Amino acid sequence: MAKVLSLEVVTPEKVVLKExxxxxxxxxxxxxxxxxxxxxxxxxxxxxxxxxxxxxEERHALCISNGFMEVANNxxxxxxxxxxxxxxxxxxxxxxAKERAxxxxxxRYPGIDVHRAELALNKALAxxxxxxxxxxx
Amino acid sequence: MPSVRDIKRRIKSIQNxxxxxxxxxxxxxxxxxRTQAAAVNSRPYTEKLExxxxxxxxxxxxxxxxxxxERPVKNAAIILITGDKGLAGGYNANVQKKALMEAHRxxxxxxxxxxxxVGNKGRDYLRRRKKNxxxxxxxxxxxxxxxxxxxxxxxxxxxxxxxxYDRVLLVYQEFITTxxxxxxxKQLLPIPYAKGGEExxxxxEPAPQEVLTILLPQYINNTxxxxxxxxxxxxxxxxxxxMTAATENAEExxxxxxxSYNRSRQAAITREISEIVGGANALQG
Lengths: 137, 285
Description:
The complex is a heterodimer of chains A (137) and B (285). Chain A is of the alpha+beta class.
């Protein structure tokens, strides 16, 4: 059997990515999860974070928000609300969002939505990490 | 008979109107194209989502997720999707009428109905009729974004889960063809689901019930997004048709007015000549 796993990243607005890969790492709800070709059928939830995938020696990153992934027959389909390639990320905006969220979590005024702030922080961190990943590789 | 100058003035004003309707027609056509493209782009996501949902429901055995379970209906919400602007033929009026009919039908069964108005036209309509309106949202983009759909969906879901509504319906204009729309009522919550998909042993990470908790809100968001996009496509289509008709009518009117303009101009000339001839004859005589 071929040692490839095709990766499809789909958002409601468009198909972001459709590539042949050799391995994928995704931020599942229970922690990072690696998927190799010939993986057993799997359905998992995803949290905001960075997807890493390899094409031979090449490595790529993609920033995603909430969603889930289905793996079957060597096809990994990832359905998410939003997905951004590193070159599309506005690092400064992400940095500002991160600081805002951190401040909110730090001060803990009564009435703030802690869950929402945490989510915002996670999203901002994911963006920053994805953007930096691209720089190093 | 109106004077030559009056007719001339009318011709001018109708030409202006025609220019506007023609421009609106063109604008609507291009917006329609963009909205349709968005609808096509969202299709792979929708298909996959439905497929996976069907599979989980099929393999998870007993379903007791609160978003799927029907409960006795005491309070219902109707989300009415209209445009912010008129000049779209029967687009707004038809969908409003449909929503009111549906509300009436529910009220006859002793169910309280609350409205959530999306779009200025529907909001004004409901307000005029003093209907119970709990929320209003306007300024939806010409090509709806997912974030806008999410806002509406979140509202519906949280109120549903808190038990404020036992059923959430959505009334919008279904897009049939560019020039044809039909007002329809769709049930949003509880989710009308169908068991389906090939039976396959899947690993779930985490358990199926928890995956469902992640998946269902996304499903609702996407459903609302889909309906919103379709409603907007219908609006653009309806407006395009209305404006095409208006432009044609203006053309017809212009033809008629030009004819009577020429006629009365000719009449004026004839009159003048006969006056001159009459005058000359009088001098000779």
